[in-house]
Amino acid sequence: MRAVADTNVYISALNFGGTADEVLTLGRAQAIQLFISPSILQEVEGVLLSKFRWSAARTRQAIAGIREFAQRIHSLLLRLDASLNPKATGTPPCTRSPLGRTHI
């Protein structure tokens, strides 16, 4: 299985454990293939430093650990409708990964 975990999954796993940590454990064990974008990595780093007041060294170590098992990708925004208004069209905007998968 392939998955993209958002910032909240990484933050929850690193600070609280639980289900979010189970997702990362599956990624580390290669039971699932986790992907991460540079923007998610930057956001995780910023949240750990500012909101949770992690030290720079601890944060660097966490980011390095994520990079060991999560494959970096660059998402491309795909326009489904000119308005991009889910209420008007019933279709939400989504992203398409380089793997050709569409993520809503």
Characterization of the model:
- The protein is of the alpha/beta class and 104 residues long.
- The chain folds into 2 domains: 1-73, no CATH class; 74-104, no CATH class.
- Helix content is 50%, strand content 16%.
- The chain contains 5 helices and 6 strands.
- The chain has helices spanning 7-16, 18-28, 38-50, 56-69, 86-89; strands at 2-4, 33-36, 71-72, 76-78, 94-96, 102-103.
- Strands 1-2-3 form a 3-stranded parallel β-sheet.
- The relative contact order is 0.16.
How is this structure best summarized?
This protein is of the alpha/beta class and 104 residues long. The chain contains five helices and six strands. The chain has helices spanning 7-16, 18-28, 38-50, 56-69, 86-89, and strands at residues 2-4, 33-36, 71-72, 76-78, 94-96, 102-103.
Stretches with pLDDT under 50, minimum 5 residues: 78-82, 89-97
Spell the H/E element sequence.
EHHEHHEEHEE
Task: Please report the number of helical segments.
Answer: 5
Tally of DSSP β-strands: 6
Strand content: 15-25%
Radius of gyration: 15 Å
Please give the largest β-sheet.
3 strands, parallel
Describe the oligomeric state of these chains in a short phrase.
single chain
Class of secondary structure makeup: alpha/beta
